[in-house]
Design goal:
- The complex is a heterodimer.
- By secondary structure, chain A is of the alpha+beta class.
- Chain A folds into 2 domains: 296 residues, no CATH class; 104 residues, no CATH class.
- In chain A, 44% of the residues lie in helices and 7% in strands.
- Chain A contains 16 helices and 7 strands.
- In chain A, the strands form 2 sheets. Chain A has a 4-stranded antiparallel β-sheet with strand order 2-1-5-6. A two-stranded parallel sheet of chain A has the order 3-4.
- In chain A, helix 2 crosses helix 8, helix 7 runs antiparallel to helix 8 and helix 7 runs antiparallel to helix 15.
- The two termini of chain A are 38 Å apart.
- Helices cover 79% and strands 2% of the residues of chain B.
- The relative contact order of chain B is 0.15.
- Chain B is globular and about 45 Å long.
- Chain B has one domain.
- Chain B is built from 6 helices and 1 strand.
- By secondary structure, chain B is mostly helical.
- The chains are: A alpha+beta, B mainly alpha.
- The interface between A and B is large, with 53 and 30 residues.
- Strand 7 of chain A pairs parallel with strand 1 of chain B.
Amino acid sequence: MQIDFHYYATYCAAFLAGYSHEECLAICYSAQFTDCCTRTLLSTIGGPSEAATTQLQLEMMDARTDLLGLQDITRIWASFHFLPRDLKADPEKGSRIYKAKYRLICGPNGDLLVKTVNLAKDKSLQAAGIAMHVLADTWAHQYFAGTPSQVINNTDYWFFELLPAEASGDSQTSRDSEASGNSKRAFTERRITFRHNPTGKDDLDKGIYTSTVYQLEENSVMSLGHGRAGHLPDYSFMRYKYLPAWGKYEEVIKDNPSDYYKAFCQMVYALRYLRGDHESFEADRYDTEKVSPYDAKIKEILEKRQLDACADWKAFGEQLSGCGIPDFNANLYCAEYKQAPTDDKDDTFLGGYIDAALAQKTMVTHQIYQSDNLLAGYSVEYSESRFLGIRDFIHYIEHKRKKEKA
Amino acid sequence: MSKFQRVQNIVIGLSMLISAAVLILFPEGGCLYIMLFLAVSLILRGISELIYYFTMARYMVGGKLILFIGAVFFDFGIFTLSLSDESKLFVLAYLLGFHAFAGLVNVLRALEAKRYKSTSWRLNMAQGVASILTVVIFMIFSRNEILLVYCYCAGMIYSAALRIYSAFRRTAVVYIQ
């Protein structure tokens, strides 16, 4: 997903869930900041590098793909962008390492999603924002894993866009098909052309999209997440079918408008739970009641063929709340954090964000480790008498204890 | 990283350092040994691709490609072994190809890094320029076998140092409460 959904649509969902305009801004800012909080940014403000929630292309190119490098990459991408659906999934066949990678495939409504939302309960608005980013991405990024893996994330030439009949234009093939959730609608297929120029813009009219280049190495960063499928999972209007590398030659149909709508309704439900409107958060529940008055408008935005839906979501959000939504600025809170005295950094906006990011990363890493899977690294019970490992996490634990005592 | 992997990296790194030292001390006829080393590397690469196929890639859509690649690497390694008479030419071609490609990639990465205003662009650019200069030196002194051996050894020492450094990297441990 992109800024249009993580920032503006999250604002709309928060407002529908009952948050005030200011609270909505804090939540949607945190949701979008998850796509900006890189080690490079953290180093410029003096923040802990382990709180990174994403990586720049440049950082990815410099990342080592030995075991430690892979664990670092997996901790970031599986925790925030490709939350595993089922850590106990059994692909029946395959070596131990193959099964470990298979179990990191992202998808909605898994146990880890429930744990993610519960982790944000009674915490900061920043924690709620991070949880909404993770939740939304489970829908957009499903079928891909947040670890570099050719055998899981690779795609091949069998990749077709499903165009609603009226928008198909001069498609190369013209077979009627049915995308899931749109059983009565006719679609035509158009083979997708992938190119590998990172500066090239996706061409919606010609069906030419940018993806990462194929690499033979199993652990190449080019095979991280949905890189091989380009930005297709990130566009709300997109419907496509392809053969996922792990899918045993069974075709998968991805219906983004339907998935994004569910993501939106689930965000409203989750945010209402975080506000205290529900006793518990359950998987596979959606707040369609709150959303239904705006169904037509939301579906119109989701279906519109455009690379960036910011303007539409922004207008909808401003119509909902009657307040202006400022454009996203990744550096908005950087000066505050940088200038705060060391002891007060945790009380700044970014201090709260960093605390929530470390909590999420710790939780997901621990769950993956507990499932007998070392792809995200080791996780041990903290013991004050002995120091091992990453100092940033010690700071998080100490901060947590201090808050509990207070 | 497991203890076994650490020990494995240290052993391989030290073996590469010793091999490089021996070649530097006795460079005459070194091209033949380099070619043997390359042949063994290709054969091992072929075997590792085959293992990758049978443990993982066979379950992947289009995974048969890995099987073919493994077979080709293995076959090419065996073929290289049979080229002992042409060892100098082969080593020269390998070094030229390797450094030209590495130089190009480093320069491109430096340009991208500069666009992101990262300070690492100078290092990448320096590495790229060094690689391209190496290619030029090879082309000028292509008849000098000893120079070829020294350049190959320099690359081997660099790889060995990276392996040993990697073996001593701290294992990341995440704390939970």
